[in-house]
Write a structure and sequence with these properties.
The chain is built from no helices and 28 strands. By secondary structure, it is an all-beta fold. Strands 2, 3, 4, 5 and 6 form a 5-stranded antiparallel beta sheet that branches. The two termini are about 35 Å apart. About 55% of the residues are buried. It binds calcium ion.
Length: about 425
């Protein structure tokens, strides 16, 4: 029933010899050298005008919006003023929620192109910032019939904004997947207008190919590509000129950040532009990373040297040049796979403004971090839900939603102050 607990990820033998878990104790080690922290430990760029989310004084609940979805894996909005939500179904359809109602006709049906399920399927969807509902192009991420990752561009039918033109589907990126699991899947446009892609480490367990730390593969990365037109002739996408690596030294120029295991979901704070990543752990620790806008490029997020804030597979490791997570949590309370969320910037629930809200697929627990807070925090439990959370999503007006993979339901995250 779960999504991210794929083959070979459950074995616990890899953790022998590791130190006692101390996930609740903030690490005192400084983060990497990539400028995530100002001297003295003050957070960079946290304006005093920002509302202060206080986890102790907020009560989070879930409001059921609708059901009837087939293994929903993501929910997002198109940013075109229509108010629509788009929900991905893992077997290969995109459904539209308009005015709180699920339209019968799918926006897109590519089930014949998609391998499903476990960690495979239709996994990601992103609309560009200037998306035109009348014939514009959007982007999807799925595993094809061979189980390989495909990122594709698809256009909307020019005469019907609730229908994509399936024949327009054009793959722009193909990545071979050596194992069935850890396919990543997230897609999002950054505040810079570039397309970011979450790529898992290729799978199996423990990253046997070392992909996370290798710069000659797209596996185990956050990629950043230009799909806005700055593309050399014959190329399906461009490389932003300020990407951190060039191809000269056998490094892939698409790489934005590396050292990731399975960044299933990531998002940008619509107010600050900070990049938040939920990186699914191996057997012990789930982590959240915060990369502040404009300060981090080419960050090494640690995998498979580290799992969360802890050395992976041994008591000692070098943290030199690694960017440590803002938070991690262990598996002792039934957690198993982090589902990265969003910084709440909506207007309906003021008590939640400034909270980074995320979940865990196995426990259903929803946690929060202070978005403008320190570089190491302990995540606070906001709600112990009984949902099989597969994804969070943001509507055009900044309200938060989540999908339940198992029940096929869409929920809205709501909150009150005490
Ligand atoms: Ca990490």
């Amino acid at each position: 029933m779960f999504l991210l607990i794929g083959l070979l990820t459950q074995a616990c033998e890899l953790a022998t010899g590791s130190p006692t878990p101390t996930a609740e104790e903030p690490s005192t080690s400084a983060p990497g050298p990539n400028g995530t922290e100002a001297p003295g430990g003050s957070p960079v760029g946290s304006p005093t005008s920002e509302p202060a989310f206080d986890p102790a004084s907020v009560r989070v609940t879930l409001r059921r919006v609708l059901g009837g979805l087939d293994r929903p894996t993501a929910v997002t909005a198109s940013g075109d003023g229509s108010g629509r939500l788009f929900v991905l179904e893992q077997p290969g359809r995109i459904r539209i929620v308009r005015d709180g109602r699920l339209l019968d006709r799918p926006f897109l049906d590519i089930r014949s192109l998609v391998s499903c399920c476990a960690e495979r399927g239709l996994l990601g969807l992103a609309f560009p910032p200037d998306f035109n509902p009348a014939g514009g192009t959007f982007f999807i991420n799925y595993t094809d019939a061979n189980g390989d990752t495909v990122v594709a561009a698809v256009s909307v039918d020019g005469g019907d904004e609730d229908l994509a033109d399936r024949a327009s589907l054009r793959p722009i990126l193909h990545v071979d997947q050596p194992f069935a699991n850890h396919n990543g899947g997230g897609l999002a446009f950054g505040p810079d207008g570039e397309l970011y892609i979450g790529m898992g480490d290729g799978g199996s367990g423990g990253d046997p190919q070392g992909n996370g730390q290798r710069l000659d593969t797209l596996l185990g990365k956050i990629l950043r590509i230009d799909v806005g037109g700055n593309t050399a002739a014959g190329q399906p996408y461009g490389i932003p000129s300020d990407n951190p690596f060039t191809e000269d030294a056998g490094r892939r120029p698409e790489i934005w950040a590396y050292g990731l295991r399975n960044p299933w979901r990531f998002s940008f704070d619509r107010e600050t532009g900070d990049l938040w990543i939920g990186d699914v752990g191996q057997n012990r620790f789930e982590e959240i990373d915060r990369l502040r806008v404009g300060t981090v490029s080419g960050a090494n997020l640690g995998w498979n040297i580290m799992e969360g804030s802890h050395c992976f597979g041994g008591a000692e490791c070098s943290r030199t040049n690694l960017v440590l997570p803002i938070a991690d949590y262990d598996h002792s309370a039934g957690d198993c796979a982090v589902i990265g969320g969003y910084v709440y910037r909506g207007s309906a629930f003021p008590a939640l403004v400034g909270a980074y809200v995320f979940g865990d697929e196995c426990s259903g627990t929803i946690r929060g971090l202070v978005a403008a807070g320190p570089d190491q925090q302990k995540a606070v439990v906001l709600l112990e839900s009984d949902r099989v959370i597969s994804s969070f999503g943001e509507s055009d007006d900044g309200e938060l939603y989540l999908t339940d993979l198992s029940s096929g339901e869409l929920y809205q995250v709501s909150a009150t102050g005490n």
